[in-house]
């Protein structure tokens, strides 16, 4: 029997938990100006766990431990490394922003971010319903506190309350669904649930009802319609640095638990949840794109944009259900590729907002970008690249991400859904192009500051981020092949 307490498999989580606790203690006893020491230690901790996960991945470390509650596999390695990099870039982009607004006086910002990341890591490696829920709550509680970290902002505190109340409701949905699945199968681990469903030793009615509640909880964490109501308000109300923290790495963890829960655990009931994903995908594409057109707040527009992109991810997931082995793996791989590239683009999109914001000024309205090309041509070109990628215009990575999802949908026989997705994507291109029009053709405000193209570490990271978006659009094959390989090696269905 495999060692049921193989702590080496959970070394990244253990390492980051210890480092985050030590950083919290160091911050209490050795407070530095603007928490520079805490900031550097946090980046150092992320580098260390990245090296640990990369070593495990390269060494082929894989297996289950803790009595089937925890799994380490190629999918876990890929998603964790991507999450580390996303959090690292988030901290770099937001560094000056949080200093200007006094958000680092207590130092809890960095510790909460690291503990939220620990929760995401647990979610990514969860192989039982219990571990999924524990990781989900660890991440969520830290994020609730982060939204309210700017205590002098009533808008941020209100957003935190909305996020907490609605997030708790979604967690309750998922927990109720988990209890029904457990009651129907007698298993808490996903492999046991899948085996019971395959053997037919379950109550179909109870399992279907439990699946409905589970999908509702997962849809909330992804931000799919009609469980999206928290996302625009929290994105707009939270400080932009926290908006980026919520909008990047947590999406990877949400996709990971969706893959493991639905594909590994409940694949035998795919006929039930596939129809739900279809409805969620179409509604997300429709509501996300149509509502984004009416937005004047840049962050709120990006929030509805997120909802529309979640629709594409769900389209990829549901396309793998009725396909054969290779087509199914390709469909799930396309959803993974889409989410990875979306997070990459999101980092740069909110990073631009953080770069343009300054002390006493929040760059949140689309009108704040008027005449940006005259003030900073390089910055304007960066925003243009990001908007074109999000709109799916070649040769940027957003185009290829949409293309592979549409190919998977057509191969699975969902031609009409692919057509619907294309139509709403064409509608969605309007609000992205409107941002470009404002930057290049509108006159800048009389009091608009001149933005210099300063060479800083933060702007250097932004340049690399934008370059990767362009290169992945031209040469996407490597990442797409990697996504397909990890799905093939990790998911059992």
Key terms:
20 helices; 75% helix; single chain; two-stranded antiparallel ribbon; mainly alpha; globular; 493 residues; 2 strands
Can you characterise this structure?
It is a single chain. This protein has one domain (7-490). It is 75% helix and 1% strand. Helix 3 (74-100) runs antiparallel to helix 10 (240-247), helix 6 runs antiparallel to helix 8 (204-222) and helix 14 (325-356) runs antiparallel to helix 19 (457-474). Strands 1-2 form a two-stranded antiparallel sheet. It is built from 20 helices and two strands.
Strand count: 2
Main β-sheet description:
2 strands, antiparallel
What is the overall shape?
Answer: globular
Secondary-structure-based class equals mainly alpha
**What fraction of residues sit in β-strands?**
under 5%
Which residue ranges are poorly predicted, with pLDDT under 50 across at least 5 consecutive positions? Answer: none
Amino-to-carboxy terminus distance: 23 Å
Continuous helix count: 20
Helix content: over 70%
- Strand order within the widest beta sheet: 1-2
Order of helices and strands: HHEEHHHHHHHHHHHHHHHHHH
The structural domain count equals 1
Please identify the oligomeric state.
single chain
Could you report the average pLDDT, rounded to the nearest whole number? 90
Cα gyration radius (Å): 22 Å
